[in-house]
Structure to design on (129 residues):
């Protein structure tokens, strides 16, 4: 039953009767395209902690079941990958926007002292900066 948690990401612990599979498309999506980032953002779920909890659960299941240890070990690793990758596209986009804002600020303010010098030189005005 614990394996069903992989695809119950957006269901708030309800049963997955509609057979949604966010673990599949979050694993396979290209983080630079962000096709499914909208679903993660709109849900408001912290995917990192969600899949980290599943990872801990799979680790415990692997310890308890001797016969199926390899199976649960595989799913533990899958949960670790999903914890890092599920919101990776949104993190990349946020970092890119931040860098663009910094670049804009630096571009605007870097030229400001030179502009003052040019104005003062051309107009014979002295600025006390």
């Amino acid at each position: 039953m614990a394996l069903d948690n992989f695809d119950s990401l957006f269901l708030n612990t309800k049963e997955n009767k509609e057979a949604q599979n966010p673990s599949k498309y979050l694993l396979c999506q290209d983080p630079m395209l962000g096709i499914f980032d909208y679903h993660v953002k709109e849900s408001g779920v912290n995917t990192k902690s969600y899949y980290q909890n599943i990872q801990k659960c799979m680790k415990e299941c692997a310890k308890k079941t001797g016969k199926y240890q390899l199976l649960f070990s595989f799913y533990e690793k899958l949960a670790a990958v999903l914890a890092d990758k599920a919101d990776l596209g949104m993190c990349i986009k946020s970092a890119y926007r931040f860098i663009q804002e910094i670049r804009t600020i630096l571009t605007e303010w870097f030229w400001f002292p030179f502009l003052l010098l040019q104005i003062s030189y051309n107009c014979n005005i002295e600025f006390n900066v």
